[in-house]
Amino acid sequence: MPSGESNFRSSIWRNTFVKAGFSILIILPMFATFLVSQQPPQEPQTFLAKHMGFSRDQILQVQHGAVVAKVLKRKKHEVAAVAVTRIDVPQEFFVARFRDIERHKKGEAVLQVRKFSVPAQADDLRELTLTSQEGRDLQKCRPGRCNFKLSTPMIRMLHQQIDFSAPNRDEQAAAAVRKAMADYAQDYAANGNNVMMEYDDKPQPVQSAKEFAELLDGSPYLTKYAPEFRDYLASFPDTALEGVDNFLYWSRENYGHDLKPVFTITAVTIYQRSGGQNPRVLIASKQIYASHYFETSLGLTMFFERTPADPSPSFYLVYVNRSRIDLLRKWYSIFGRERLAGNVRSSMRKNLSELRSKVESEYRATQEPAPSPATHGSPRRQQR
């Protein structure tokens, strides 16, 4: 073969391979993009971006282990916020800890907290007391004008049971309130949304069940990710759902900023799903009573599983809280909304960060090997 022809053919082959290689370099990324597009969307990234309005930067912060909190768009007299982080413990460990609500909720702002018995009893509230000022407020309480959030039947019942002229009126008032609230908790456990209180402390009554239903209607993400759970909450207790566990607890909390301590009753529903659904665990914390400020509140905790390739047990915890507050009904509340939003955001971030640290520390303690019976002193001292 002539050398010129050989060189020519070699040149053709070289050009062909170069072009083919160049084409492969172009096609490979396109093919990789196609494969990625065929993968199911990752969670909670999709949830955070589509339903919570998280930016790409905020999602990256979450993936790198940060606690990110965000205030959501406000409607009417509502405050809504979301906080998310990764927690490095098994989901079952966190659920078990949550069930121990008296330890789980304990914090600087939580003055008292206790789970109700089944059925609820007045003795469950034995630690609840009233100040002299609260006793005087009850004495002055009338339908449409009351310093406590109460229904008209409850206001009249308390006035029948308490002798406000007696020397022990404060003790009588506390005992009557404990009995009334235990009866209300027991009634809710049996009849659910149908018996949620209508607050008559203001000239315009507020139906807490109606307010709660509006919160659910304004939570399309719950309908998208767990429609059966949404229906269960909306029709409780008329709809059965496998995998749910319910309990009630009461608490007294101090919100500071010259606000009164608030006594609340909360209904908790833990829903654990099977079949690889994500989120696998959802926890609804539904406020069914508040002595001041809150007309209704729904806290939704969602556990999103990480990829199977992760070596350590962990999950993403997303907490969404929506509350309707009577103070925000006033026209002048527009001047304090931004400050309130900032306080809510910083509080949620701080609380979730502290909770993560506590839970992870407790889990690590369960994984540490027990000291040998023959070992005396701490391991650190032994090494010395």
Task: Provide a compact summary of the structure.
The protein is of the alpha+beta class and 384 residues long. Helices cover 43% and strands 20% of the residues. Residues 1-40 and 376-384 have low confidence and may be disordered.
Which labels suit this protein?
Alpha-D-Glucose-1,6-Bisphosphate, Chain A, domain 4; 10 strands; disordered N terminus; eight-stranded antiparallel sheet; 13 helices; about 45% helix; two-stranded antiparallel sheet; alpha+beta; disordered C terminus; globular; about 20% strand; about 375 residues
The chain-level mean pLDDT equals 85
| Global Rg | 28 Å
Low-confidence stretches: 1-40, 376-384
The counted number of beta strands is 10
Determine the number of helices (DSSP H or I, runs of at least 4 residues): 13
Please tell me the CATH architecture of the domain at 45-118 and 205-366 by its name.
2-Layer Sandwich
> What general outline do the C-alpha atoms trace?
globular
Query: Which range best describes the helical content: under 10%, 10-25%, 25-40%, 40-55%, 55-70% or over 70%?
Result: 40-55%
Largest sheet: 8 strands, antiparallel
In order across it, which strands form the biggest sheet? 1-2-10-9-8-7-6-3
**CATH fold descriptor of the domain at 45-118 and 205-366:** Alpha-D-Glucose-1,6-Bisphosphate, Chain A, domain 4
H/E series: HHHEEHHEHHHEEHHHEEEEEHH
CATH superfamily of the domain at 45-118 and 205-366: START domain
What distance separates the N and C termini?
83 Å
Oligomer category: single chain
Strand content: 15-25%
CATH class of the domain at 45-118 and 205-366: Alpha Beta
Class derived from helix and strand content:
alpha+beta
